[in-house]
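stage 2 :: seqdesign
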């Protein structure tokens, strides 16, 4: 069953180089991306490998930690992107050539629920040319796919936190323990009867650290 969450009210604003017209989100138990242009499953990662500037099929993910291999709940037991002891900050995702994203989803789990399926408290930020153009607070279940539909940004920063209160503080130095698997970039393909109901709330431009 596919679940859809209302995240906020759609807001548009002029940016430095483009306009973020509309970004919507969804959670699903399957990927809903077709016509895939870039994909990463992390299956070649090795335990304790550096995650700084990790690249796969035109995608780049950044963490200043090494990879920790474990059986994350809700995932299939293969390798995934996970920082040893968690990350003091968010995980950054971009395209190697620096271009804007179109539609994207990824399967996620969390070190905060290491032994069982549980709720994840996610914080997602979107950037364009170093300026923040939108963000979401999303509650999801370990093993869900999280999707972003609509472009106008070239970097995604994402984290999973130990409680809603920690997530809602929007502290970029808080410990994040997200596990990411099966990223697909391409075109959103809704299943019959699916309704997309979320919007991206613009929160005021500020330059990334």
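stage 2 :: out
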């Amino acid at each position: 069953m596919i679940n859809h969450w209302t995240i906020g009210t759609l807001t548009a604003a002029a940016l430095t180089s483009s306009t973020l017209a509309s970004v919507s989100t969804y959670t699903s138990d399957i990927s809903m991306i077709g016509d895939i242009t870039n994909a990463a499953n992390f299956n070649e990662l090795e335990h304790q490998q550096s995650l700084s500037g990790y690249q796969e099929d035109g995608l780049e993910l950044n963490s200043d930690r090494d990879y920790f291999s474990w059986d994350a709940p809700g995932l299939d037991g293969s390798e995934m992107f996970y920082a040893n002891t968690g990350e003091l900050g968010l995980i950054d995702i971009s395209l190697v050539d620096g271009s804007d994203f179109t539609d994207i989803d990824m399967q996620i789990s969390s070190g905060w629920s290491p032994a069982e399926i549980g709720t994840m408290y996610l914080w997602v930020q979107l950037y364009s040319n170093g300026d923040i153009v939108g963000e979401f607070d999303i509650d999801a279940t370990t093993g869900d796919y999280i999707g972003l539909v609509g472009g106008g940004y070239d970097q995604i920063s994402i984290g999973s936190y130990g409680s809603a209160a920690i997530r809602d503080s929007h502290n970029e130095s808080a410990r994040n323990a997200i596990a990411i698997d099966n990223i697909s970039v391409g075109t959103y393909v809704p299943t019959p009867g699916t309704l997309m109901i979320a919007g991206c709330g613009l929160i005021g431009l500020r330059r990334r650290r």
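stage 3 :: structure notes
- The helical segments are 164-168.
- The first strand starts at residue 24 and ends at 28.
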